[in-house]
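Sequence design from tokenized structure. All designs in this work follow the same two-part layout: the structure record, then the generated sequence. An example of the structure record is given first.
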């Protein structure tokens, strides 16, 4: 059953496999849910309801977003390793928790507080 034909009855809405695959594909290119809803001709509230109730939709969105993040992270990491200083700084700040300006450590207790573990 097509999503567009069933919008009036959200409790019975069941997306086709093609529509679920479209959600996955759009999630893989970082398309926001609001845009995915427009493309599928669904109200955003219905798409969000489907995210909560249809495991196929939830999996498609989560997997798509994870693939997008992996692709971006891989490109950024390779760029940093290739000498892109801005990419290296961004990775340090977002992935390793570095911040500016560097903190001055005044005693051994502060070093213990910063320990990872």
């Amino acid at each position: 059953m097509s999503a567009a034909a069933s919008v009036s009855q959200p409790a019975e809405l069941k997306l086709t496999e093609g529509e679920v695959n479209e959600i996955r594909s759009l999630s893989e290119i970082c398309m926001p849910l609001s845009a995915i809803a427009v493309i599928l001709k669904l109200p955003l509230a219905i798409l969000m309801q489907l995210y909560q109730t249809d495991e196929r939709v939830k999996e498609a969105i989560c997997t798509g977003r994870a693939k997008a993040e992996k692709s971006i992270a891989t490109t950024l990491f390779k760029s940093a390793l290739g000498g892109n200083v801005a990419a290296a700084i961004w990775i340090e700040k977002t992935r390793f928790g570095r911040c500016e300006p560097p903190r001055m450590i005044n005693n051994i207790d502060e070093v213990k507080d910063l320990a990872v573990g």
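The first helix runs from residue 17 to 28. We note this feature because it recurs in several other targets discussed in the main text.
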